[in-house]
Each structure stands twice: as C-alpha cells, then as structure tokens.
Write the structure tokens for this entry.
Amino acid sequence: MRTNEQVKEMVKQKYSEIALQDKASNASSCCGATSSCCGDEVYSIMSDDYTALKGYNPDADLALGCGLPTEFAKIKKGDVVIDLGSGAGNDCFIARHECGAEGKVIGIDFTDAMINKARTNAEKLGFNNVEFRQGDIEKLPVGGNMADVIVSNCVLNLVPDKEKVFKEMIRVLKPGGHFSVSDIVLVGQLPDKWKETAEMYAGCVSGAIQKSDYIGFAKQAGFKNLTIQKEKIITIPEDILERYFSKEEIANYKNSGTGIYSITLYGEKPETCCEPGCCD
C-alpha cells in the first residue's frame, strides 16, 4: 500500500509527462516502445466534449476531465473563481468567459509543468485576470473567504486526503459561495489489484472512493444543499482491462456489482455558519 506522499509523487510524475504531450497523445499513445500502454485511453473514455462551451481554448484541453463542471457552476460576472487542479487552464478559460474581465480566476495545480503550460496559454490569450498558482489542494495557497465559486474536474481522485480538500474548499469560499466539482466515484469495491496500478490511479479509477463517502465528506465540511447535477456510468473497455487483469479477474469484477460513475456535485457554503473551521 502506497503512502500519501508516494501517491502524490506518482501523480506529480505522471501529470508532468502528460503536460508535455498534446491532447491526441494523451488520448491514445503509449509511453514507449519498451513498455506497455499507460492506460491513457481511460482519460478519453471519461472526458466530456468541451468544444461547444464559450471560452474554450483547444491548446488548454488535454482531455483529462470526467465532466463539465464549469457548465453547471452558475458563475456570474465579477465572480472570483478557483479551479482545483487547473492543468493547462481549460476550465479556467471557460470560467473567465463567464465571470468576465471584471472577475478573477485562480487556477491551482500540483505540477510545475502544468502551471507553466497554463501560464503560456493565458499569455497567448492576453488574459490579465487569470492567475495560476503552484500548490497542494489539501492546503490551498489562497486566503479564507475570498472565492465566490470553486470548480474542479476529475482531480480529487488524485488526492489522498479528500476530506481535507473539502475543508479547504469551505475555508476559501465566501459565505454563500458554492462549488461544482466533477469526479469519479464508486458504488461497490474495486479489486485490490487496481489500487496498486499506477496508470489506473493516474486515470482517476483506483483513487475513487464510495459515492456516499464522497458526498459525506462535503457534508461533514459544512456544505449545504448538496446536489448531483449530472451522473453517468463509466465503462472500461475489455482491451484496457486485459492489460492489467486475467480473464478470471475481469469476470469477477464484472459480476461484483461494482459501478464506476462520473458525478458533478454541487454544494453551498452557508451564509452564516458555526461549524469548526467553516468561517476561518
């Protein structure tokens, strides 16, 4: 079993590699001639089509998401928006279209290579109200009570302490602020072997937790009016499963009743609150 720090280092290395690839490579390529495919197809299986959303920039789309949280985030002109795990800036640029020049968007990412790519994209677009900060979303590099909206796309699965992330989210949101987060959750248990497969973790599968626990962490942090805005089942194709598991293991998984789902979860920070840490 990996430690939290080992998981973080694995994710950092994997996403540093991804940052240097284009969208097509992330969706279909292998890591090299001497290694098996990295499972990058898992990303495209989960990702939704962003191209119809206003503010979309193809240079910032690495096909790493599992939903369209900015579509559901109720961003208004002048809002301050934070994107957790901002990657090359895809959701940030869509959020910037919604909050306008009078608003502000802060993207936070764990990986230096992603931050550099996002800053390059923002410079090309001439945006001076979109900022990218390197940081761990378990300890957000922003002050309290400063954001109107938080978005995130298939990132909390990569974080060992998801409970801590929700506590950080409620800390940095203004009273009355809200979040819209797309992520992968489970109904039933994945085989233990999946949890030891680095590519499956980086593809947001083995890092998934139970749907009830995921929503429970948001509730425990103090969020109200929790709503699933969108839900879809994720089916991993047979040819990808065969790279990691025997036919017997695949059959056992399919008969286990386990479901892998993409959900977009919405929640609000109360206007007034007395939960520990809620208004710090």
Q: What stands out?
A: The chain has a mean pLDDT of 83.
